[in-house]
């Protein structure tokens, strides 16, 4: 399984993904699920993958190759808007789905690759989308400023309570990390390292990117202080009257 | 869907269940999922139901009727241990499953009724079980002092962080209510009223039972103070160092 979150704020965007992949309970591995296309001053694109690793790697591989082809076709490097980028990602998802899908039906799973795609292209505000395995997609709005994929339920309540469009980037990053900590504690199919990007609106460059590996001292401190803080809040909540 | 939680503590037990039932998105209703068998000074049994309402009501109905039959067969009123109670619940689940199951296969769902069952019988410590729709069951232990059914993921992280066997009954009740608040905010298939029982070890009587209906002032205060407290904890967490 997987857990990915992307948040669209007034001040920018926050992206985070776990790194656990598994084929059954006895076959775990670690692969980053975060892909960046960046040309400083012009565009920043971040893709967070979920689904079958073979499927998501093939889609990313196709986007990369098409981006290097130089045959005059539109690519992630030349698209003028995020909506056009989503059309290109959709084309790649459908191309791989058509190629691999029929061979996967027999094994029960079928083709399964979906993405959170966010970023900013020069001339546009930052935008955030969720691409389904069928190649259709939705865009985040200020009533729902975040999108998740994978094991989303454990980490959803804390995001719902804390994050609004005007929450700061720093606070949002901490909240997203706590959301990951909650999910990893509760579900074996989500695991460290966590990849995190905090993107400042209109910077058109990735300046804050960090990987939190198993045992990361900041992550552990965050987790410990969060647990202690939460227990303190409980002690201070009003007593139940019978 | 449903959300139910039961917790086994050194000082007693806490039970809570939501009341939403639905057959499709356009057919919602409200039914209590909490059933109590109590003979003060002798036994307290609490059942929390999940699954198809027809199935769980039939199982409870059968347990009640068999309890009133007076034909010398063991019943929930005469069983000597909680393990024996579980055998009786299992018999009832399987009897209804055999009766209704074949008629439900065609509609896709099949027979589906499961229960959290906890309580105390005179001469035993309090015990807590989870009964599956197949009639087999597990018992909670001090490494896992709580059991959930239904939409369990949203509310699990907060319980994992706060509740240990030595947590007080009052604190556990507050934590369970916050866990419900988190779930209800995130999932339409779980809804008020919430039924809550706090059982004090060796009291062999239900003395603290309360229903929280939509708009309950204590529940709203708890939810508001929890949200404010959590946001405060975030502000005080260490800043991310890049």
What would you note in describing this structure?
- The structure is a homodimer of 242-residue chains.
- The first copy, chain A, has one domain (3-216): Aminohydrolase, N-terminal nucleophile (Ntn) domain (Glutamine Phosphoribosylpyrophosphate, subunit 1, domain 1).
- Chain A has helices at 53-68, 82-104, 156-162, 169-186, 217-236; strands at 3-9, 12-17, 20-22, 28-30, 34-39, 43-51, 113-121, 127-131, 137-139, 146-150, 194-200, 208-212.
- In chain A, helix 1 packs across helix 2 (82-104), helix 3 runs antiparallel to helix 4 and helix 4 crosses helix 5 (217-236).
- Chain A is globular, with a radius of gyration of 19 Å.
- Chain A starts with a strand and ends in a 6-residue tail after the last helix.
- In chain A, the strands form 3 sheets. Chain A has a 5-stranded antiparallel beta sheet with strand order 10-1-2-11-12, with helices on one face. A 5-stranded antiparallel beta sheet of chain A has the order 5-6-7-8-9.
- Chain A has 5 helices and 12 strands.
- With 242 residues, chain A is α+β, with helices and mostly antiparallel strands.
- The A-B interface holds A 151, 153-158, 160-162, 170-171, 173-175, 177-178, 182-183, 185-186, 198, 208, 210, 218, 221-222, 225-227, 229-242 and B 151, 153-158, 160-162, 170-171, 173-175, 177-178, 182-183, 185-186, 198, 208, 210, 218, 221-222, 225-227, 229-242.
